[in-house]
Amino acid sequence: MRGRDHHDLGRRTVSGLAHHLEGWWPAPLRRSDRIHPWPVDAFAGLLDQPSPLAGGNSALPPMWHLFSFLEYPAQHELGADGHPAAGHFLPPIPHRRRMFAGGRWHYHRPLRVGDEVTLRSTVISIEPKIGRSGDLVFVTVRHEYSIGDLLAGVEEQDIVYRSEPPAAPAAPSAPPTEPAEDTTPAEHELRIDPDPTLLFRFSALTYNAHRIHYDQPYATGVEGYPRLVVHGPLLALLALELPRRHHPEAQVLEFHYRLRRPAFTGATIQARGWAPAGDGWCGLAVGELGRLPSLTATVRLRAVEEE
């Protein structure tokens, strides 16, 4: 059931969800969108940063295309968790719960405000597995962004789905208490204190109605989290803020990231970055201050003048 470009994300074994996926391999989708300036300015405001479009610049920072190509399901199409109850790339498993697991971004040329961009999305991997929390399905979708006939970037997103029938409210799980994995002093770091307002604004920017990000009674009483959950894509964008702010002369060529555990409101989120090696790769980590990282990543940089 795997695609040829499958990325192994855990222990392979037989999952009880496999029979639900028999014959399910959705066809590719193609759509277009124009890159608009307002979400770029809006996300910069959320970060308390000046707009990257100031001074006549039109290029998007790496991964800021996430605010384009949004889907707009009708209200009646949403499930109890706020996600669409059905969708082209949503696996047909019962009582579906969704978690963002990570991804990869490969740069070819900049996306700019005003560009008419074509997006081609394809499922490249479907992998049923059994994890520590039970039966899981890992789905990897590849997104190819093109301007005319020119490929601008390739993104792969790894999404994890599990089946969890309705039951009595789950007991809130305790956040991890381990020390950070890497105590080596970072070259750069930034800190934010995500509160419900910040998470609400990010949900609005991405048109994400998943209730774990804004509905505290649902997040704690139904899905068993201790507090509201910080968005995985927001953690990835915070990681990329380090090269954007501290290495503005460099271009992000590749960005590989993995989400390892949730981060929650009520804790300071720290992003740390280490100096690039000789090949341009450097390490990044984002998570609650003093705890194991929620996201670990590597990014490859290249000086702009080398293009």
Mind sketching the topology for me?
Blueprint: E1 29-34, H1 38-46, E2 96-107, E3 116-131, E4 134-147, E5 150-163, E6 188-192, H2 196-206, H3 216-221, H4 232-246, E7 250-259, E8 269-273, E9 281-288, E10 295-303
Antiparallel strand pairs: 1-3, 2-5, 2-7, 3-4, 4-5, 6-8, 7-10, 8-9, 9-10
Helix pairs in contact: 1-2
Verbal overview:
With 307 residues, the chain is an alpha+beta fold. The protein has 2 domains: 1-39 and 69-166, Thiol Ester Dehydrase, Chain A (Roll); 170-307, Hotdog Thioesterase (Thiol Ester Dehydrase, Chain A, Roll). The chain contains 4 helices and 10 strands. It has helices at residues 38-46, 196-206, 216-221, 232-246, and strands at residues 29-34, 96-107, 116-131, 134-147, 150-163, 188-192, 250-259, 269-273, 281-288, 295-303. A 10-stranded antiparallel beta sheet has the order 1-3-4-5-2-7-10-9-8-6, with helices on one face. A hairpin with a 7-residue loop joins β8 (269-273) and β9 (281-288). α1 (38-46) packs antiparallel against α2 (196-206). The longest helix is centred in the last third of the chain and has 15 residues, at 232-246. The N and C termini lie far apart (39 Å). Mean pLDDT is 87; it is low at 2-13 and 168-180.
